[in-house]
Amino acid sequence: MSKITVDSGILSEDELKTIKDQQTKQGTIVQQIGVYETQKHQLMHDLAAVNEAVNETKQNLEAKYGSINIDLETGHWKRIKDEDVEDKKD
Question: What is the 3-state secondary structure (H, E, C) of 34-70?
Answer without folding.
Answer: HHHHHHHHHHHHHHHHHHHHHHHHHHHHHHHHCCEEE
